Amino acid sequence: MTMRSLRPIASSSRTAVRAFSQSAARRATPRIPGPDYNADPVQALHLVRRGITWLLIGATGTLGAAMVGFEALHQYVETGPMGYPSRGNDEWGWEDEVQGWTGGPKGGTDPRLGWKARHALRAAWMCQNWGAGDASLSSRQGFFEPDYIAVKGMIGVDPDVVRPDRGYEMANGFFDIALEAARVRGLVFPPTLSVLRPAGPPTSINPIQGDPAVVDILLLKANGLERLGTQAALGQAKEIYEQVVASTHSDSSPVHEARVMRLAAKVGSLCARMGDGEEALAWWGWGLQRVGLELPSRVQEVKTEARTWLGKSPEPVQAVLPTSLPPPILRATISLLISSATHLATQSHVPGAASLQTTALTILPAPAPIPQPNATTAPATLHHTWIEQRSSLLALHLASTSYALGRPALNLATVATTRSDDVLSALTPIPPLYTKSFGPIAKQLHRDALLTAAEAAYTRGVLLERQPNPPLDIAAECFERAMSLNASESGSSEPAEMGREWQKYWDSHARVKQKLGQVVST
Fold first, then answer.
1. Shortest CA distance to 252 belongs to which of 284, 290, 216, 281?
2. What pLDDT is stored for residue 314 in this prediction?
């Protein structure tokens, strides 16, 4: 056998030896055993228990963090947005005009209500302000205050379409929870009114008053129902306001009198929104009687005495006007007169509306520059600013009614524009002193000033456009100003989100530009 023939055999032998060596090495290497759940059930249960433990720890931590965050959010609302004092009895009466959340002078919520009711009230605040619906729509409806369409002009008034806001619907449920909790804790409720009582204001006021915290919740609930705007909600809100009025104890202090007058204004506005102008006038007249002013209490009287009461000679209010009213009562009186005049104007009783507007301007102090507030003068300066804003509003309304009666109106519209711009200058930005002490009132006043200024600019532009030789370029500037102010109030730069008022201003602007031979784009 040759060497060449032996080579394959040697090669095969080496391969076999190598394979044997590798197999032996594998058998010699120790094997690390893995878990055998079938052979060791105790170890399997241990691993499962460890997994469940970690899951519970994670869930507990997540739940704890959520609870801490939940409570922190509630405490922020308690001490921040709901922390404004209310039910005060100071000279200027601003604290009493702040709608409190049961905490009174301390702000926030009343500890006597307990954990459940206090959390329900905070949840209601969140629903109303952070919302579950289009809160911007609700905030732009112009008839939620006592003078429910006061910030709108009377030339081409077009009422807004009311759509219930889901946030206010949810808040209403939370108010019911808070009221039930207050009842369980024994807090005194105002007496329930008889369903057989005659319509209109009470003939006497019950000396028994409900617990202030309960009254606050009832007023909060009524205010939310107002904003829902349905007929059922309006009727329920009216019932609550009447219940509070009837249980208000007798008190001759200016703050108390102003409170009753504001409630009368609210009930009257609800009556007007529900289509009962007769009862609305009765409530407004009842409120004005507390300062010695007289209004006809029945719509029928207004209609049958149209030749006298709505004529040139007789005045709808008594001839002797109050010359000096305490600040809270003065503000309540002006609001009642504005509500009454606005209602008469929208019901085609224009001469009576003009007479009431003139009366209100007579009662108001003469216009004066608005000073900068400081720590001691902030309440007085805010009152001065409020007076100037309502003066501009009354001048605007009187311009509209004067135009409808064929009287000169352009100067009044110009005065309204100038005064409203002065108010905006004083409130833009809102002084920190106002925000700290009575922020909700200052914010509402700033919004009213924006709406009034926009409507005044629009009304002035309309009157200029209707002049024999109209200065169309100035009218166009007025409409542009109205559009800009409306955009500032809505907080949006998108035309589709600005509402019907902005569209009205835009249409007038485009019409004037077309007359000038200019092309405009949105």
1. 290
2. 34
Task: Give pairs for 344-351: CB < 8 Å, separation 24+.
Answer: 344/302, 345/154, 345/397, 345/400, 345/401, 345/404, 346/149, 346/154, 346/157, 347/277, 347/299, 349/302, 349/306, 349/310, 350/401, 350/404, 350/405, 351/310, 351/311, 351/312, 351/401, 351/405
Distance CA 289, CA 178 (A): 35
Q: Which conformational region is residue 517 in: left (phi greater than 0), alpha (psi within -120 to 50 degrees), or beta?
A: left
Q: Which residue has the higher pLDDT, 354 or 32?
A: 354
Q: Where are the domains of the chain?
A: 68-250, 252-364, 382-522
Whole-structure pTM value: 0.81
Are residues 343 and 277 in contact, defined by beta-carbon separation less than 8 angstroms?
yes
> What are 189-242's pLDDT values in tens digits?
998 888 888 888 887 766 667 899 999 999 999 999 999 989 999 999 999 999
Q: Do residues 105 and 87 make contact, with C-beta atoms less than 8 angstroms apart?
A: yes
Round to the nearest angstrom and report the end-to-end CA distance of the chain: 108
In this structure, what are the phi and psi dihedrals at residue 189, rounded to the nearest 5 degrees?
-100, 150
| Ordered DSSP codes for 77-142 | HHHTTT----S---SS-HHHHS---S-GGG-S--GGGHHHHHHHHHHHHHHHHT-SS-HHHHHH-T
Are the CB atoms for 107 and 88 separated by under 8 Å?
no
Quote the CA–CA distance of 440 and 139 in Å, as a whole number. 13
Return the structure tokens found at 102: 């049961």
Provide long-range contacts, Cβ within 8 A and 24+ apart, for 202-206. Answer: 202/242, 202/245, 202/246, 205/245, 205/246, 205/247, 205/248, 205/249, 205/250, 206/246, 206/247, 206/248, 206/249
CA 182, CA 116: separation in Å to the nearest integer? 10
Confidence band for 160, pLDDT divided at 50, 70 and 90 = very low
* pLDDT tens per residue, range 124-147: 999 998 876 444 444 333 333 434
- DSSP per position, 204-215: S--S----HHHH
In percent, the amount of the chain with pLDDT more than 90 equals 51
Task: Specify burial of residue 346 (Cβ count, 10 A radius: 0-12, 13-18, 19+).
Answer: middle
What the block records as the tokens of 386 is 């409020």
- Please report how the helices 277-289 and 254-273 are oriented relative to each other, as an axis angle in degrees rounded to 10: 170
Please give the Cα distance from 434 to 56 (Å, whole number): 49
User: What are the residues whose beta carbons fall under 8 Å from the beta carbon of 206, sequence distance 6 or more?
Assistant: 191, 246, 247, 248, 249
> Taking Cα atoms as reference points, which of 192, 199, 231, 150 lies closest to residue 400?
150
- Gyration radius of the chain's alpha carbons: 35
